[in-house]
Amino acid sequence: MTCNRIDPFVTIGTATAENTQYWRWGDDNLFPYALSMLSRRSTIHRRIVNDKADYIAGKGIAFDRDNSPLASLIEPINGTGETLREVIAKLAFDKCLMGNAFLEIITDEKHSFLALFHQDATRCRLAKEKQHVILHHDWMAYDPDKARRLPLYPNFEKAADGTLRTMIHYKDYEPMFENYGVPAYLSGINASAIMYKTDRWNISRLDNSFQLSGIMMLDAEIDNDREAEQILRGAEARFAGNPGQVMFLVKGMSEGESSKFIPISTAHEGDWKDLHAQAASDIVVAHSWFRSLSGLDYVAGFSSERILLEYEIALNTVILAAQGQLLDPIKGVIEQLFGADASSLEIVNRPPASVKPAYMMVWEARKADGLDYDPADPAQQHYIGNLSKSSSL
User: Fold this and answer.
1) Domain end: 233, 249, 264, which one?
2) What pTM was estimated for this model as a whole?
């Protein structure tokens, strides 16, 4: 019996990947799976990845709207109605999480249109000849007949629907790693695992209603091991709570003895809390990120000045560089394939908080937010304090 399977890919690549060999991503080729699973289990680690990717994606895309060829190419950016900002947000997330991201580019022989699709990095592997990317929906059960193969830019190949397709592979540089990038937080993987394990320990304590662990000595007259097993299982089902909290032992007590509980106390609860806090700090450092932009210091009070200061540092040391890495190849594709001027294409950045003084001019505020500005523009020479509440920068 056969059934028709839905193609797991949004777009259509080359029909087969045949037996093309690929470079393994990790010792077992499942490193992206491990990183994805870890991000879903470690709260602070996931928060940093989410926020970092969101800052890199910005609040939108700015460009010269008088440039008709450019506007027609990027609004929308593909047939599913996605905006360029949405595609870049997915690329930024993959790159922050896995150190790699994949962008599919689609056009035709006449270069009459442009479509950009994000491809899930967990599905992508680099071919052995380093000229193609192989896509497969499940690398734990690789089947060449169900894979797709796309060339790396600037090479294009014709697909079954007649379109020309290629792939851009973004990757973070790491010495000794030639085929795939390595995420910036690699040294903090153990800290992320600690966060997950300490959270799991707290859940276990909550499930046990914070009861003491210990050994329960049961006084019972038993004739065989089977009776002892039944007594133990019944006691555990009724009183033990989370497995491992209470150990039950059955023995024939001497005269004058009875069942008793021997608690196992620990004086290292503070060590667990300190370990959790240290792991949180280590994760932030490993990500090359900042505590106030990760939501870690909100309990100590909301300091807009510190948030703005750290955002400014992050903007100039992390965000703008990452945005350039994602956007520059797209600009190159637009200019080389379509001859359109893409120099005005940029990501709009806005700080998470705003405390601009009333005496700041509009062009100064736009400069501080990372937007394009023109000190000679009369419309940008007004003081913010004189603007009406309905005005926007």
Assistant:
1) 264
2) 0.73
